[in-house]
Amino acid sequence: MINKFSALALIGLAGAFAFAPSAQAADCAATIEGNDAMQFNVKTLSVPASCKEFKVTLKHTGQLAANIMGHNVVVAKTADVAGVNGDGMKAGADNDYVKPGDARVIAHSKVVGGGESTTFSIPVAKLEAGQDYSYFCSFPGHFSIMQGKLTLAK
Q1: Of 22-31, 40-49, 88-97, the least confident
Q2: Do strands 53-60 and 29-34 pair parallel, antiparallel, or not at all (unpaired)?
Q3: How far apart (Å, rounded) are the C-alpha atoms in residues 28 and 11?
Q4: Which of 86, 87, 137 is nearest to 110 (CA)?
Q5: Which of 13, 63, 107, 143 is 20 to 30 Å from 99 at the Cα level?
Q6: How many whole angstroms separate alpha carbon 26 and alpha carbon 54?
Q7: Residue 114 pLDDT > 60
């Protein structure tokens, strides 16, 4: 009787694992929260080199509207960040504060306001081992505070 129950328990566990999401899929995504105090809750992102794309969800946990306290996430080489931000501010709200066609921008989200979220993908093939990458919010006035480091992990 015990052996029959043990066998059934093992079959049940095997079935549960067959339908569980893969760990690799979970490793190819992250969530960053931005708030009304102009802060990201995540200061570093580690992107596995094994991923084809890395999905980032930006959640604005504040209450203020996008035109007042909007947030986005822009990914670029750290050496390019100041220039990308400056050109993004000139590009304006209609372009989510990202210069259209800017080759220095690896990926970016749209601008969201309080209670909103958005998801965008970083094409991992555009990242190189040993390079220094950053992500930041290019909404006017947020750049100096809302920044983080992005690394390509093996």
Answers
A1: 22-31
A2: parallel
A3: 29
A4: 137
A5: 63
A6: 10
A7: yes
